Amino acid sequence: MKEFALIDKKNLFEPTIIWRECLRTIKENVTLMTYNTWFTPIKPLELENSILKVQLPSRFFWEWIDEHYNTLISKTIQDVLGAEAKLAYVISEENENDQVPKIEPVTLPVISEDVNKPKQQFESYLNSRYTFESFIKGEGNQLARAAASAISDNPGGTSFNPFFVYGGVGLGKTHLIQAIGNKILQNFPDKKVIYLSADIFTVEFVESIQSNTVNEFSNFYRKMDVLIIDDIQFLIGKEKTQDHFFHIFNQLHQARKQIILTSDKPPKDLKGLDERLISRFQWGLTADIQPPDLETRIAILKRKTGDYGMSVSNDILEYIANNITSNIRELEGCLIKLLANASLNSKEINLELAKKTVKEIATDRKVNVSIESITKIVCNYFKIDENKIRDKTRKKEVVLARQISMYLSKELTKSSLKTIGLHFGGRDHSTVIHACSAIENDKESDMLLKDTLETLKNNIEISCS
Ligand code: ADP
Ligand code: MG
Predict the structure, then answer these.
(1) For position 328, which CATH number holds?
(2) Predicted confidence (pLDDT) per residue in 27-49, tens digit
(3) Coil, strand, or helix at residue 44?
(4) Using one digit for the tens of pLDDT, what is the confidence trace for 93-112?
(5) Ligand 1: which of 128, 175, 307 to mutate, most ligand atoms within 8 Å of CB?
(6) Mutation probe of ligand 1 site: the residue of 21, 262, 328 with most atoms within 8 A of C-beta
(7) C-alpha 43: how far from its chain's center?
(8) Domain stops at, among 254, 288, 322
(9) pTM to 2 decimals?
(10) Domain assignment of residue 36, yes or no
């Protein structure tokens, strides 16, 4: 094993930190049941030369993971560690000969009726790392944080019900609302608290329709004391799910149970969401989270370097804080990348390496976003079939969606005009230039277009981060 003077406890921490980063992305891309069944049992062992070695409980496990989640895992590890990164599997020795699949069927979480068993009979899906202690206070999150803390002491009993937090990507919404959940469980261990994102809620709802268990689905959520739903904007356009959520919301609210929600924008701007829901979201407290100021960014970096067991000088932290300004997730990502860059190349952490890493973060931002993902999100937004955008249709709404997709591809990816044209049914690069300038012009005078572009960018950022 190599030695790195700058990084304490490196061998112990590094694989764990890297794997934890991976899990975060994975968790956002699979259902809760899948995550728990297949990903939580994986143990990170060591990291060498961009290869993260992990241990799986059995051979069957390995085959299943390899068959179903290979792409997701490869992509995730590359996002975290760089293009050459790979995952290597070892199978836990005691089970090496275990050939018998012993996998429980995937079902909805159920609350046990057995009163003799200890309190929390179901998974809350809260990540224990999201706490108030690890949440740095700043001007941008003052109100939201104060309200969150009041709710934790008296869930359902304050006028902050529902508590609706909104703000841009990577600003700490998920962290804050999970901190509330964790704190409530600490204060009131008997309360039933559940956290999930609105798209997982939708997936579970659809699955319950398919398996004829809609009643079980609704009853499960109606029994909660605290229902925390992240990224509620994902309910937009899903009328049936909204309708079910509406009834669950009413029942919980009437019973004075705490409801906590987040979104990328304030309730009134959630176009495409049922008006009844929008008005209910405003019954309690709506609080926004703004991007952190410089001092807060430095404080966050200091705290995280401590958490990761890194020692980094102030001028380097200030450099990073001055150059990564609008997203706390990126601040964190930068530190992790810096740690990886230093240890993979056995270099020390200095300003030069920090500059290189900040540059890489800016490139990653573009590499992560693909023309395909942009097209998908734009088509989804306009409810247009993706194929239409590639063929010759000159229908007004298709033309607009196509032009917007081209414009966003130019802005958010590193692709050339020629490549962009090819993706849209082999169109010429001059067509792409025309589309980009048309959108560029129109957005100055057309507020609706400007707003649409912002929403789309946000959705793209969320799905690609
Ligand atoms: P959002 O849900 O708004 O997109 P997250 O809650 O996922 O953002 O935050 C992104 C990352 O930044 C998380 O790892 C989170 O722990 C961290 N983070 C955000 N805000 C803070 C804060 N105020 N103090 C410490 N860490 C923070
Ligand atoms: Mg979030």
Answers:
(1) 1.10.8.60
(2) 887 777 677 777 888 989 888 88
(3) strand
(4) 655 444 433 333 333 333 33
(5) 175
(6) 328
(7) 22
(8) 288
(9) 0.67
(10) yes
